Amino acid sequence: MISTYSRTPGWMFAAAALALLAGCASGGKSAVGSAVPAPAGANPQVLLLGEVHDNAAGHKLRYELLRQRVEAGWRPAIVMEQFDRENQDVLSKAQKGCLDAQCVIRVAGGPRWDWQLYYPVIQLALTYQLPLIAGNLSRADASRVVRDGVTATFDPKSIRDYRLDQPLPADVRGGQQTEIVAGHCNMLPEMMIEGMVNAQIARDIWMAKIVRDQQPRDVVLIAGNGHVRKDIGVARWINAVAPALTVRSEGYVEGKADSGRYDASYTVAPQPRPDPCAAVQPKAKS
Question: Is this model's pTM higher than 0.90 or not?
Answer without folding.
Answer: no
